[in-house]
């Protein structure tokens, strides 16, 4: 591991261990207040944890575990560049000089620093903005310049805190594509609460909630086969935990029909079901492999569909279907889906939860 990090900070309920390998992009995914920014601030050296240690390639960034070998490297000596959520550009400097600021601070001469800055502006497809002052940049343009500025410091480790959150929906995809290219082969941690960012930018994902890591692994594997209810919620999937039976699985609220030939009976299993695969009906659905009686808890508009949250599962229906069913909280209805709509897998992830 290139970065080995472990820290706790009681005031923020934060207790996290994570690693990043050289050339790897790791996404930290989680809701507001999960501790994602706290992790970046501690790694960058802006915040001191109560205890813990972090090493980069064997060199201590900090070691606060007591004893005589304590260490605390100041932020500018860590080789870490943090693009914070509120990355402000210097208003009185052109985009080029904003990007040249890092190399200049490191002692590089003006011309050489500007040459470096031009390279990084080109890297983020913003060469044409070199002479423009920040006040005249759009949100997307300013973010390109801020990313170039973070890269121009030539960090070993790049930390990006919600790099796409402040951007218009129309601009985010082009910046996301640019970031994907820029991050290729770089060692980086990207904080996000968007599953799409994790899927497009990260090799591995660390899911956090309330200051702790709840799940980690290869991005696609974690998001398609969540083991933790919280990850399933982020991924927009129903997660059912239970035990493998002959025909599928036993959940605490009943039996689910699902194919999964390779999992032995009695094993702890998880099932993921897309809400859009579930049919909602006022009557039992004998034609479907599964017809689960549920109680509606609430209805929530989601894009062009309505999410029907029930006690055990959630289903997405069209607004027309929701109106036809005249659904309301407390209603008893049936959720129908077939075995082939259920993705069944072992619920343990022993090797990747590090
Ligand atoms: N400056 C601060 N002083 C004290 N507590 C803080 C401070 N900043 C954050 N916290 C608390 O620390 C916890 C973790 O917050 P943090 O900002 O790291 O979460 P986050 O996952 O980055 O959330 P967001 O997505 O909202 O940025 C929260 O309980 C938060 O209230």
TrEMBL record:
One Pfam family cited in the UniProt record for this chain: ABC_tran
Keyword Transport among record annotations: yes
Keywords, sorted A to Z: ATP-binding, Nucleotide-binding, Transport
GO molecular function: ATP binding; ATP hydrolysis activity; transmembrane transporter activity
Domain ABC transporter: 3-235
InterPro entries named in the record: AAA+_ATPase, ABC_SmlMolc_Importer, ABC_transporter-like_ATP-bd, ABC_transporter-like_CS, Mo/tungstate-bd_C_term_dom, P-loop_NTPase, Transp-assoc_OB_typ2
One cellular component (GO) term of this entry: ATP-binding cassette (ABC) transporter complex
Protein name from the UniProt record: ABC transporter ATP-binding protein
């Amino acid at each position: 591991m290139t970065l080995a990090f472990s820290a706790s900070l009681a005031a923020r309920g934060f207790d996290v261990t994570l690693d990043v390998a050289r050339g790897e992009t790791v996404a930290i995914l989680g809701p507001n207040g999960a501790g994602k920014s706290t992790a970046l601030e501690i790694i960058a050296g802006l915040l001191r944890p109560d205890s813990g240690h972090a090493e980069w390639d064997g060199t201590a960034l900090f070691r606060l575990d007591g004893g005589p070998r304590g260490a605390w490297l100041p932020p500018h000596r860590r080789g870490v560049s943090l693009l914070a959520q509120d990355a402000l550009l210097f208003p009185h400097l052109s985009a080029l000089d904003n990007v040249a600021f890092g190399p200049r601070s490191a002692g590089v001469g003006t011309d050489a620093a500007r040459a470096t800055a031009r390279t990084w502006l080109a890297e983020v497809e913003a060469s044409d903005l070199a002479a423009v002052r920040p006040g005249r940049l759009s949100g997307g343009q300013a973010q390109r310049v801020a990313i170039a500025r973070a890269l121009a410091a030539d960090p070993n480790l790049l930390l990006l805190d919600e790099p796409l959150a402040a951007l218009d929906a129309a601009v985010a995809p082009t910046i996301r594509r640019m970031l994907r290219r820029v991050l290729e082969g770089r060692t980086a941690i990207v904080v996000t609460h968007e599953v799409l960012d994790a899927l497009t930018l990260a090799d591995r994902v660390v899911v956090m909630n309330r200051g702790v890591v709840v799940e980690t692994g290869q991005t696609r594997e974690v998001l398609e086969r969540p083991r933790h209810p919280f990850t399933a919620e982020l991924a927009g999937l129903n997660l059912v935990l239970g035990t493998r039976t002959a025909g599928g699985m036993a959940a605490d609220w009943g039996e689910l029909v699902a194919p999964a030939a390779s999992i032995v009976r009695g094993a702890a299993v998880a099932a993921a079901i897309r809400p859009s695969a579930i049919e909602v009906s006022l009557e039992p659905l004998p034609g479907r492999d599964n017809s689960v009686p549920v109680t509606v808890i609430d209805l929530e508009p989601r894009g062009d569909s309505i999410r029907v949250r029930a006690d055990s599962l959630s289903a997405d229906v069209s607004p027309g279907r929701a109106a036809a069913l005249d659904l309301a909280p407390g209603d008893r209805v049936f959720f129908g889906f077939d075995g082939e709509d259920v993705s069944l897998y072992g619920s343990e992830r022993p090797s990747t939860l590090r």
